[in-house]
Amino acid sequence: MQTEVVVTLPETPPPAGGYPTLYLLHGLGDDGTAWTRWTGIERYAEQHGIAVVMPSGARSFYTDEAHGLRWWTWIAEQLPERLGGMLNLSTAREATFVAGLSMGGYGAFKLALRHPERFAAAASLSGALGWARRMPTPEWPDELRELRHTVLGEADATDSDEDVFHLLGRTPVADLPALYLACGEQDYLVEENLAFLAQAELLGVPIEQSLRPGDHEWGFWDAEIQRVLDWLPLSR
């Protein structure tokens, strides 16, 4: 697999144990450069003294694809191991966080819910949280049908390890990372985000919410990533 990762590091020396680290995931159709091109993430992160790791995940939904590459294995397991010592990144749970937008919001919650022992907090911005529960219909365009076939195959992935609704109820509430969900009220993904919040309420899982006017666009995400950084349980 040939891929790339963008990393921003604070200008200050790393604290004992390494820099607190945010893994920040992009959306469908973008790559690891998107956050630095479309937001002020490098400046915001510097203000908080946090390293940001932005891997490219192609169109994988951060999954070991049924008919493709092992993106989940790379981003969830191999990447943190390779970068941690090389760049003085903390591996402590209390200093490790994950966030993302759209496809990356889904990926962020999947990472945090499958590995709650590794992440202190996770944020989904306009997350495609219902991805694993979608089955092709006659109305689906060929491109979307082919994408689902590549990523998930033909089987229904509901209640699997790819389904964040299912994962939400798998870990005791006390052991879950802190969760943050943002979605614009005009976003085409708002209904599945509201459904996820309803599932969380049913399970007694607290989620910090930011539901406000906005669409599926970078102005919304630039504002929200600043809110996320303010919300993270960083040592100040």
Automatic annotation (TrEMBL):
SUPFAM superfamilies: alpha/beta-Hydrolases. It comes from the Bacteria. GO terms for molecular function: acyltransferase activity, transferring groups other than amino-acyl groups. This is Prolyl oligopeptidase family serine peptidase. It comes from Schumannella soli.
